Amino acid sequence: MISIIIINYNLADQVKDCVYSLIKNCNTKDFELILFENGSNEKSLHNLVEELKNLKQLNFKFIESEVNLGFGRACNQAAASAEKEIFLFLNPDTLIGNDLIKKLNEYVLPEIYQKNLIAGLKVNSEKIFDFSAGYFPNIIFEIMNIFLIGRWLEAFLVKVKTLFINQPVSLDWVMGSAIIMSKDLFEKLSGFAPEYFLYFEEMDICKRAKLLGYDVKYYHQIEVNHLGSVGSKKNYYFFTKMFYKGKLTFLKKHNSNFKFKIYSYIIRLQFYSQILFWTFMSKKYKVISEHKIKAFKELLKYLNCPSKISNNYCA
């Protein structure tokens, strides 16, 4: 049995589509569903909650927070109420098809029970690139990110690694949009690290798992439909800022002071290149450019101390 955990923040419409895709395509006896409302307080979500509570065949729990705790802390609170042995953390902007639970039972859960590993599913279906998993940050990727191509190179290498293989592959991290682990391992790792507000929580927990000798596997043969960027398109300032706050937090936490200084110099150049790029694009994408430039200017102020970067949502 699996506990499926969904964290909502201002995505009530997507949550409804996600939940009903689960109900339609999976046997509801095979999982419990935990929906965590993370401070957005959407009226339409409460309508969905009432609908789900009335479905007798669905094992459903609803938890509500008055404030936005951030993704990791919300997952930790939701997981504390989970009763099953396996946790599947699922983004609200995903759609499930073709009996996902059956595939997990056949291919993923036996390895989790045997090796107590972290598993990730394919959440990106681009033909040339695969952003569903990847490698921990390194100097080469970060230098290439000055020219806006480092993440694309990483995604290309993941695609190449999985192109002719129909088996899961070991990678450094898997996307948090559909990440699976045992309750036992989650508790051994003390859950997601609370210092991350949004982004890089999954990379951090994968890093800590690997440091303890556990494997991280990417099951690219099992796919969920991840719409992607639904939330970020509502506020480019906030999500740009949170992405780099998460990255800087990860780099500072998992590197020596000397190596972090090297990374911070490189990322400073990334910010300058991004400001130039979005200044150039401002006529065509006025609002996006304004949000992005404001975020990068704020990030430059606290480059060496990411904990001081605010979680303020308003641009």
Brief sketch in words of this structure:
The chain is of the alpha/beta class.
Describe the model:
The chain is of the alpha/beta class and 315 residues long. Helix content is 46%, strand content 17%. The protein has eleven helices and twelve strands. The protein has an eight-stranded mixed β-sheet with strand order 3-2-1-4-10-6-11-8, sandwiched between helices. Strand 1 (2-8), helix 1 (12-25) and strand 2 (31-38) form a beta-alpha-beta unit. Helix 5 (139-145) runs parallel beside helix 10 (257-280). The protein is globular, with a radius of gyration of 19 Å. The mean pLDDT is 93.
Mean pLDDT, nearest integer? 93
Rg from alpha-carbon coordinates: 19 Å
Q: Name the strands of the widest sheet in spatial order.
A: 3-2-1-4-10-6-11-8
Topology, number of strands: 12
Quaternary organization:
single chain
The portion of residues assigned to helices is 40-55%
Query: By helix and strand content, what is the structural category?
Result: alpha/beta
Main beta-sheet strand count, sense and barrel state: 8 strands, mixed
The fraction of residues assigned to DSSP E strands is: 15-25%
State the shape.
globular
Report the uncertain regions: none
Our measurement of the CA-to-CA distance between the termini, rounded to an integer number of angstroms, reads 43 Å
**Element order, helices and strands?**
EHEHEHEEHEEHHEEEHHEEHHH
Question: Please, how many helices?
Answer: 11
